[in-house]
Write a structure and sequence with these properties.
Length: about 350
């Protein structure tokens, strides 16, 4: 692996350097276990709880590493990104800690709870239209006006290196892990985890977990090239991005499989996390457990030897006091059966789901 260190946007060395750089600012999140979930799955499961990370998600690791990697002149001009999710809040918080400006381009219609987090952490919210072209156009204008540095949510070696620190901590604490299951969207998280874990333990399996309604990574693996979906439709709104030019080579070469699950399975996994682990995780964060418990994973003979599995719980569920798994299950079933065309704005922070 290290012989191919220049093949990818990050490597074990850059990930270790990132950990040294950010460890004074991040939480070394706990690893939780549950005998009940072990019994249900028939395996030993180890949950890396990034839902307890600063900012509520793993994103702070990469954002913190990117901000701390800037030189003095770059930092003085600040950072910019376009995001409606956890990366926006994470970058705002990282910039606040360093005392530099953060310009966050947010598409209209973004979940209020996510925008509130950006504002809480001191980010300067700049609105764009909901389209990706508008987001990129506004971000480009901000770059020209401010001279700030663009920090992409996942297609950035500094981000990938920061996210890879999760694997360093997990494998140092639980050395018997033979498999790690990671949510996949743009690929920054799983790229960092795969690069670190495969370098430390070449025999380890890295498996991506992806929702059926946004299964571009699974399709990309089959096609051998990046597949971009024209439309995504999943409750896991944090897993709708497409793979980037820096993350795809890692996913192509080092991710052993992609397990695709239905929204209903994700909701059930959320419930189990809440009831058995006593942890509230967003749909994108619960998908790893959903994958482990899925029929496609459990019946696949390729994975029968996966006995000690690390699962990354990537982000917390907000407004947890209004959580209703029954309401979510009903909405998902209704949508699946296509009994009618509906739009639901659910008063829980999963967040402001819209099904059309």
């Amino acid at each position: 692996m290290e012989a191919n260190r220049h093949k990818y946007a990050a490597d074990l060395s850059s990930i270790k350097e990132a950990h040294e750089r950010i460890k004074a600012y991040i939480h070394e999140t706990p690893v939780l276990t549950s005998e009940s979930l072990n019994s249900i799955s028939g395996r030993s499961l180890f949950f890396k709880c990034e839902c307890f990370q600063k900012g509520g998600a793993f994103k702070f690791r990469g954002a913190c590493n990117a901000v701390l990697s800037l030189d003095t002149e770059q930092a003085a001009k600040g950072v910019v990104t376009h995001s409606s999710g956890n990366h926006a809040a994470a970058l705002s918080l990282a910039a606040k800690i360093q005392g530099i400006p953060a310009y966050i381009v947010v598409p209209k219609g973004a979940p209020k709870c996510k925008v509130d987090n950006v504002v809480r952490y001191g980010g300067n919210v700049i609105w764009s239209e909901a389209t990706m072209s508008s987001r990129e156009e506004v971000a480009s204008r901000v770059l020209q006006e401010t001279g700030s540095v663009l920090i992409h949510p996942y297609n950035d070696g500094r981000i990938i290196s920061g996210q890879g620190t999760i694997a360093l901590e997990l494998l140092e604490k639980i050395q018997e892990i033979d498999t790690i299951i990671v949510p996949i969207s743009g690929g920054g998280l799983i790229s960092g985890v795969a690069l670190a874990a495969k370098s430390i333990k070449p025999s380890i399996r890295i498996i991506a977990a992806e929702p059926k309604g946004a299964d571009d990574a699974a399709q990309s693996k089959v096609a051998g090239r990046i597949i971009t979906l024209p439309v995504t439709n999943t409750i896991a709104d944090g897993l709708r991005a497409s793979l980037g030019e820096l993350t795809w080579p890692v996913v192509r070469d080092l991710v052993d499989d992609v397990v695709v699950v239905e929204d209903g399975e994700i909701i059930e996994a959320m419930r189990m996390c809440y009831e058995m682990l006593k942890v509230s995780v967003e749909p994108s964060g619960a998908i790893g457990l959903a994958a482990v418990l899925s029929t496609s994973f459990r019946s696949n003979p390729c994975w029968k030897d996966c006995k000690n599995i690390g699962i990354v719980l990537s982000g917390e569920l907000e407004q947890r006091d209004s959580l209703s798994f029954k309401k979510l299950s009903f909405i998902t079933e209704l949508k699946k059966r296509k009994q009618c065309v509906v739009r639901f704005l659910v008063n829980i922070s999963l967040p402001s789901f819209q099904f059309v």
